[in-house]
């Protein structure tokens, strides 16, 4: 389970970064409109199952290992924020300030988990 959590957390961290870059690129393209069925839906269909698996595994891991600074509600918030960040990154009418706040919150939790998995409880 630990390796799967680390792999999925790394994947979600990369997707969080990609979402920020994608939004920044879309904001530069005047009049950009995503193709929902050709671009957004296929991306989300691949992303959501991995994110959902990560959420379930992390909650189990927290119950078993009880990391000091990572709580189940952070996992739930991160899951919801990841949904929003990935989906909103395709659309130019996104509220950038709110998007970046969610991005930063995701980054913090995901990096905290990766650090814990690499170094243990005292490292966070």
UniProtKB/TrEMBL annotation:
Superkingdom of source = Bacteria
InterPro entries, alphabetized: YppE-like, YppE-like_sf
SUPFAM superfamilies this protein is in? YppE-like (SSF140415)
Protein name listed in UniProt = DUF1798 family protein
């Amino acid at each position: 389970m630990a390796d799967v959590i680390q792999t999925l957390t790394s994947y979600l961290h990369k997707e969080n970064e990609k979402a920020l870059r994608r939004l920044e690129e879309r904001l530069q393209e005047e009049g950009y409109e995503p193709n929902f069925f050709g671009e957004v839906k296929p991306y989300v269909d691949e992303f959501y199952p991995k994110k959902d698996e990560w959420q379930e595994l992390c909650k189990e891991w927290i119950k078993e290992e009880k990391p000091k600074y990572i709580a189940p509600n952070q996992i739930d918030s991160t899951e919801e924020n990841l949904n929003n960040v990935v989906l909103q990154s395709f659309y130019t009418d996104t509220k950038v300030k709110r998007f970046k706040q969610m991005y930063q919150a995701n980054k913090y939790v995901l990096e905290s988990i990766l650090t814990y998995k690499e170094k243990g409880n005292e490292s966070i």
